[in-house]
Write a structure and sequence with these properties.
The complex is a heterodimer of chains A (259) and B (297). With 259 residues, chain A is α/β, with parallel strands linked by helices. Chain A folds into two domains: 5-112, no CATH class; 127-147 and 158-238, 2-Layer Sandwich (D-amino Acid Aminotransferase, Chain A, domain 1). Chain A is built from five helices and twelve strands. Chain B folds into three domains: 6-81, no CATH class; 114-169, Dna Ligase, domain 1; 174-289, D-amino Acid Aminotransferase, Chain A, domain 1 (2-Layer Sandwich). The longest helix of chain B is centred in the first third of the chain and has 19 residues, at 62-80. The chains are: A alpha/beta (259), B alpha+beta (297). The interface between A and B is large, with 66 and 71 residues.
């Protein structure tokens, strides 16, 4: 394995993550799935990252050699750990989730995106939260309607979300062709959410297009996004940027990053 | 004041419209509440699957899906509203990862035990040799019971490979439970020989409690810790060592305070009720209750 390592934390069933790791393996990209946590060799003393060890893809890696992390896993589900006895899977999944939250938060290398307690990949905002923040930033939005009433009848299917146009934010870079106004809005939304990796969907490419939605899991298998992610880590390493927890608020809200 | 009874979820209706504003209503039975009139919410959520009607209908049933939808909408509102929420779901989640929470605890000035999280038997043995008396406890809030390592555990260290396990140096001393309610601090001194007094009865070990006044510096740290975790009400577990050092083990976002209130007579419930009743609107909220994030702009 290369001396410097980029880690993708993902489900074993995440095809995009597997593709990214396979294509850029020669550049040190490797895939970490929850099953990797069931190998001897993990060692972490909170506050002492220099001596911490990880086991990724069957290989023992010094955590200090991890140059960057992309997280594509919101939480650890029982489906990821079918090698664990069924009666213990809920417990082990919770333990692995807790470990990854702590570990990913403490890593000094860049992490896209830094976890929050409810979600390993960033803020666990529902669509309504994204819409409200977007609206408060001055972005045109469509009102989100949520309704729950028990009628005993089958629930009516929700109308499918309009596809629209997606741009991907990677750090300061905007990937995707939209009006510059939309590009600025997308960056502002990412900043408001405290993330450096975000897919933002608009109803069109024109400057008055409405915000449709956002998600923390853009397609990192797409060449432009993949290159942007690796460049992001390279730039952070070049500038010596590192993270000190808890520079954010404890619930994962934006704070001053160490540099 | 309105009680939203989870047991009556099948008779509940929730509806929200969200853009720059959050509008809608909650209805339980015949009582309907405009969400914009709500100034405070005390969220003590239990797993809705335990509701008898839902348990009987079974996972995947229409009733189950309805209950899930109601709770999703309620939790969304709890995150979106500028009203006082005790405690917001996102803030409560920190308790599900003890090492994460421990880092915040340490940043607020409390001592925390030396900790090792490992799947490596050799690392665990080395830690045990270093600290002689070591406890192990869950990383999450599942099966959360503290126990000491004993010689019988040596033959089981190879089992660590299955899952990261948390070990900590044993900290001797007296236990205290602190309840922070807004700016109020209620402290209870606990006297028990059990490793984990919450489960002392299982070991046939007695527990006694009495009110206690924390040193001002320590009380301030507790307030700061609750604020750092964005918890309006918090249950904080402290231990005072024989040499006078205050350790903090964890912060509970939904403390079962009645146990301590009954033992000490401390007016925790009344203080929470007063806090909720006096909740200001978002525009007049004191700084320590204002959220720094954008989700309740």
């Amino acid at each position: 394995m290369a001396a410097k390592v980029f880690v993708v934390v993902a489900s074993r069933m995440d095809a995009m993550a597997r593709t990214f790791a396979r294509r850029y393996g020669a550049r040190g990209v490797c895939l970490l799935t929850p099953a990797d946590l069931s190998h001897p060799g993990w060692c972490y003393r909170p506050g002492e990252l220099d001596t911490a060890m990880a086991v990724i893809g069957g290989q023992r890696i010094a955590v200090r050699d991890i140059t960057g992390v992309v997280t594509r896993l919101p939480s650890v589900s029982e489906y990821e750990i079918d090698h664990i006895a069924a009666v213990d899977r809920a417990y082990v999944a919770a333990e692995m989730q807790a470990f990854l939250l702590s570990w990913l938060t403490a890593l000094r290398c860049p992490v896209l995106n830094r976890p929050t307690p409810p979600c390993l990949g960033g803020p666990a905002w529902c669509p309504a939260q994204w819409v409200k923040v977007a609206a408060r930033l001055g972005m045109p939005v469509t009102t989100v309607h949520r309704h729950a009433m028990f009628s005993g009848k089958p629930a009516t299917k929700r109308a499918p979300r309009p596809q629209g146009v997606t741009v991907t934010i990677v750090g300061q870079r905007v990937i995707g062709t939209v009006d510059p106004v939309l590009a600025c809005q997308a960056r502002a939304l990412a900043m408001a959410a405290g993330v450096d990796l975000l897919a933002v969907r608009f109803s069109g490419r024109e400057r008055d297009a409405a915000f449709v939605g956002a998600e923390l899991w853009p397609n990192i298998a797409a060449a432009a996004v993949a290159h942007a992610v690796l460049d992001y880590f390279h730039v952070c390493a070049t500038h010596g940027e590192h993270h000190d927890f808890p520079s954010r608020t404890a619930t994962g809200q934006p704070g001053t990053r160490g540099a | 004041m309105v009680f939203f009874d989870q047991w009556a979820v099948l008779d509940a209706e929730v509806q929200l419209w969200v853009d720059a504003q959050v509008k809608g209503f909650f209805r339980i039975g015949q009582q309907q509440i405009d969400v914009q009139t709500i100034t405070a919410m005390y969220l003590r959520n239990a797993d809705f699957c335990r509701v008898p009607a839902i348990r009987q209908a079974g996972p995947g049933s229409r009733a189950w899906h309805h209950a899930l939808d109601v709770h999703k909408v309620l939790f969304s509102w709890a995150e979106l509203t500028p009203a006082l929420v005790v405690n917001r779901p996102s803030a409560s989640a920190s308790n599900s990862a003890k090492p994460y929470q421990s880092a915040v605890i340490q940043a607020c000035g409390f001592a925390v035990p030396a900790t090792l999280i490992t799947t490596d038997p050799a690392a665990a043995q080395a830690f045990w040799d270093q600290y002689d008396t070591v406890i192990y406890k869950s990383l999450s809030s599942v099966r959360s019971m503290v126990a000491r390592l004993t010689p019988a555990h040596r033959s089981r260290l190879d089992d660590l490979a299955s899952c990261p396990t948390q070990f900590q140096q044993y900290i001797p001393g007296h236990d205290y439970r602190v309840h922070v309610v807004g700016e109020e601090v209620f402290t209870c001194e606990i006297v028990s020989a059990a490793d984990d007094y919450r489960y002392a009865h299982r070991q046939g070990i007695s527990v006694s409690m009495r009110p206690y006044t924390l040193p001002a510096v320590c009380a301030d740290r507790c307030r700061a810790l609750a604020a750092a975790l964005e918890l309006v009400v918090a249950g904080i577990d402290l231990r005072l060592t024989p040499d006078g050092q205050w350790y903090c083990f964890e912060v509970n976002p939904s403390p079962a305070f009645t146990y301590y209130q009954q033992a000490t007579g401390q007016p925790i419930a009344a203080t929470i009720a007063r806090l909720l009743a006096a909740a200001p609107t978002a525009t007049t909220m004191p700084n320590n209750f204002q959220r720094s994030n954008y989700s309740s702009l």
